[in-house]
Amino acid sequence: MKNFKKTAVAAALTVCVSGAIILPNDVEAAVRDYSSLVEQHDGGFASQTELARQYIAQTERFVYFYDMYIDRYRERYSTQPWFGFLIQTRDDYQQELDQLTAFLDNANSVPAAPVLVRTETAVDTRYDVVRSAPYEVDRTDTVVEETDDGAIHIYAVVTRVMETAVKTTTVVETTTTRHYNDGSTEAETHSEVSAVETTYEQETQIARQLIESRDIAPEPAPEQEVVSGQGSPTLNVIAADAYMARDDVNLSQTQNYVDAFQTAYSFFGASTILSNERYGKYGNDLDIVNAPEAWARGWTGAGSTIAILDTGIDADHSEFAGRILDQQCFTSACNGSEGMDDVNGHGTHVAGTAAAALDGIGMTGVAPDANLIIGKVATKSGFYDMMGMAQALGWASESGAAVANVSGGYSFGTPFRNAVTAAGNGTYSIANPGSDSTLNAWATNGYYNLNQDSAGSLLSTMKANFSDSEMVMVAAAGNQGLAYSAYPGNYATQTNSDGTLTFGGRILIAGSYDVKTDDLSSFSNAAGTLCVGDSCATSDYRVSDFYLMAPGSFVASAQSGGGYTVKSGTSMAAPVISGAVAIVHQMWPHMKGENLAQLLLATGNKNIPNYDANRHGQGLLDLDEATSPQGTLSIPTSGRADGATTNDFGAIGLSGGAQVSEVMSSLMVLDDYDRDFYVDASSMVTAVDTRTFSHTVAHKDLINTNAYAGYATDAQLVGGGNTLLGISDNGDEINLSYDFNNGLSLGYMTETGTFLGNTADSDLMRINGATTGYLGYNFDTRVSERVSVFGGASAGFTTLNIDQQSMLKGADTVISNTANIGARFNTTAGEFGVVAALPVAIASGDVHFRTPSDIDASGNLVYQDSRSNLAGASREYNLGVFYNNDIGSATRISAYAEQRSNYTGIDGKTEVEAGIQLNIRF
């Protein structure tokens, strides 16, 4: 590459910004057969003539530039192959100029205009309603403390009174239609404002943001402190539909779009621009990529920085007020009269598409709250200084940019395009270069040695400035309508000697999506891979792996010097994707650049007609999907977001659901990209029936009413007298009970896998068993010959066996109780009884959780300590009746009915049980 800078003089003439001049009716690449484009244009004779004049001016400029460089270098380089390429290209442009001039000469000989036959006039009235963006007329900021379940929650409360100006304009449209003797017609519409009325609407918005939660009796401080401002959502967002109702968000069929379109193409009328058969389907780019869905979740790019490496920016444009953090120049053009100003307008348009403000004016960028840094790497003529761009990548990375937008690239010359052939499976190469030294060089080292890694080359300069970074680069695919993409985007697949990606998977290639055709724009280079040397044989990486589409046809954005205009090109698609990177970076600032890029690629919308990965790459950008969880949700179990996780949510069954569900109502989980989401996992806590028996049945049958003993299911009580004992076969469970003669009783039992019949076997909360001691008192007293009363009460004290590998870290002693009372009546018709009972239930018992609550900028988990209570919110109570009757000496009939209110501890839930039994003794 010793002669790199010299040969770059010639190559630069093919290096241009990707936002080319586009024929507005039938989009084609700019460097094409201009005369044919004029003749094929269906906008009418007047439009063809105007278009021809524009192309003549453009082509004359090209011929001038080529003549200048040919004269300058003829003496020294006339024998070089590339010099012949310059002369050939200049002659091609001259031929186009001659043909366009001939077209205009023929136009002057058009027959006389037809004769007017009659004129018709129609008058119509329309009402244009323009709603301003809501603006703040009053604001109150307060800090509120709330106490709930032993914890203090501190909220920042912002109360804003927002006012919207609603301007209704009454417009009288007079349409005059002229009919000519040749059958043609000509319509002209004149609009006149007859009335303007402005009304005002007010709305009060209250936003609450949790600042801090802490125990009243503080627990030990967490290991990681929360990093202020990391991953904070934007406050005071509105619903996606409300965003789409704004004229500066959805420009489709709006006056805003008509004005921007006519700035670029003044000869088109509003009816043509708004016609769905022509351009009426454009202007809804933000809706196409679902940006309002991301905004509605609080993700607007706030706190993220986008580097725009382009022709500069109109820093005075209102769309960027207060958000341009820095500007640097990386091309010698800044030394001339233009300085840092955006004389071309391309960079301002690109910056607006990425990050224009949501201010109610004009249009809105994908990331309206993102900051910008501007690297000027292209001249007023639109030609990129690629070496300057490579150096600007290092500056952007060091400045903290999350993404760098490069809406420019190399255009492939005709000899190169003619030599490229399809190699199958979406790959392309120069298959048979023969003895042509130029083709051999291109086949081995890439177009103009762009794949050659030597001192001073573009590749080596990019490696020096962009390899050691977490910044993402978005590059335009190019506008030549080719099956393969251009440089520098092709560097996405560049590999090192060990087969790893040179730029770590952090380059995204932007293809242009056409809203009207629901396909790749006709001018956009597609997702094919251009193979160099043996790159496709030795590497599995393909351009399609890094290729993503975004709207790039007739995009309305900011214009240098003020106002708005429309441009088309992959240059316009790239900043849509750059804005998307800023949005997901706001959500997860700790994510690596590779994951940010991969996230957008993996969530691309492939539901498009005739989807083909080799043409459409990973589909169409989808910010709704990108800001939603992806893959399997898991619970982090180590100190980092990219550390160990588990998706074993297990089973939690508690009487009444207990109050631990509050801890799980906002549980942090990670998706496949280590992104933190907050889900309501309280549904995983199910209410279970922990009652061991029915007191109604027990009193009917005169059996033991020890409610605690039934929990040790593998250690049934056996024995006699006052002492009962049970031990499980493996010795894990013990059940011991002793009844004193005065009605008092003592008991001791152990459980495995349960605690008082409840279950917690999850990485969220795992209790392996429990030990319970209990004290009870029972009585059965005859108050008359036919009436007796009975009852009892018990209290238990339980110690839990906690697995601290789960998020449950400790527990206080669990206190439980049970009680019953009833009466038995002996009558001539049999024995009747009534029973009221409270089954065993936990009355108190705090448990201590330590759960991840956030992720700091370094990817470390931030924890919070919280307390909850195992007591259910409601207490079950039972009311029952029973009946016994001996029919003769050998037959007995028994029956019972019982109502269980607040069944399993759920308030208002009722179950009824009943049974009848006939016993016959032989």
Give a structural overview.
With 922 residues, this protein is an alpha+beta fold. The chain has 5 domains: 4-107, no CATH class; 116-244, no CATH class; 288-411 and 447-626, Peptidase S8/S53 domain (Rossmann fold); 635-683, no CATH class; 688-920, no CATH class. The protein is 22% helix and 34% strand. The protein is built from 20 helices and 40 strands. Strands 26-27-28-29-31-32-34-35-38-39-40 form an 11-stranded antiparallel sheet, covered by helices on one side. Strand 39 (891-901) and strand 40 form a beta hairpin. Helix 2 runs antiparallel to helix 3 (45-77), helix 3 runs antiparallel to helix 4 (81-107) and helix 11 (386-398) packs parallel to helix 14 (458-466). The relative contact order is 0.08. Residues 1-31 and 216-230 have low confidence and may be disordered.
Which key features would you list for this structure?
alpha+beta, single chain, eleven-stranded antiparallel β-sheet, 20 helices, 5 domains, elongated, eight-stranded mixed β-sheet, Rossmann fold, about 900 residues, disordered N terminus
The whole-angstrom Rg is 39 Å
Shape: elongated
Roughly what is the average pLDDT, rounded to an integer?
84
Low-confidence stretches: 1-31, 216-230
Helix tally equals: 20
Distance between the termini: 112 Å
CATH topology grouping of the largest domain? Rossmann fold
What is the makeup of the main sheet?
11 strands, antiparallel
Query: What portion of residues is helical?
Result: 10-25%
CATH superfamily grouping of the largest domain: Peptidase S8/S53 domain
SS class: alpha+beta
Count the beta strands: 40
How many structural domains does the protein architecture include? 5
CATH architecture of the largest domain: 3-Layer(aba) Sandwich
**Spatial arrangement of strands, main beta sheet:** 26-27-28-29-31-32-34-35-38-39-40
Pfam family, one: Peptidase_S8
Family: Belongs to the peptidase S8 family.
Protein name: S8 family serine peptidase
Organism: Litorivicinus lipolyticus
